[in-house]
Amino acid sequence: MERHAFYARLNPGHEDAYVEAHHNMPRDLVAAYRKAGISNLVIFRDGELLLLYLECEELAAAMASLDKNPMEVQWQKLISPMLEGGDFRKLTGIFELP
């Protein structure tokens, strides 16, 4: 299982729209994420800073699958203008509470 983080910054004025979009994420898109191999995805917010944490079998394969999905293409058209920067970084675990 791979663990990745995506760091980004919300563009000013998009805070409410970003939260609202994720509260209303289409169920079919959620299913597509799972089908692509993403087993866990959590977004944390600290003011304008965002941290997306995800677990998947293989990030490159998951992204390749989602890039072909019309729902994901539309989703990214909606979300991308709300964000500045951002890239995925593979995380190395150091400690987990036993």
Structural summary, described in words:
It contains four helices and four strands. It is an alpha+beta fold and 98 residues long. The chain has a four-stranded antiparallel beta sheet with strand order 2-3-1-4. Helix content is 38%, strand content 35%.
What is the fold's blueprint, element by element?
Layout: E1 2-10, H1 15-23, H2 27-35, E2 38-46, E3 49-56, H3 59-67, H4 70-79, E4 83-90
Antiparallel strand pairs: 1-3, 1-4, 2-3
List keywords for this structure.
4 strands; 98 residues; alpha+beta; globular; Alpha-Beta Plaits; four-stranded antiparallel beta sheet; 4 helices
> What separation lies between the terminal Cα atoms?
18 Å
Mean pLDDT: 95
Number of strands: 4
Order of helices and strands: EHHEEHHE
What low-confidence regions span 5 or more consecutive residues with pLDDT below 50? none
Helix-residue proportion: 25-40%
The oligomerization state is: single chain
User: In one word, what is the shape?
Assistant: globular
Strand content: 25-35%
Which strands sit side by side, in order, in the main sheet? 2-3-1-4
Overall structural domain count: 1
CATH C-level name: Alpha Beta
CATH architecture: 2-Layer Sandwich
Summarize the structure.
The chain has 4 helices and 4 strands, in the order E-H-H-E-E-H-H-E.
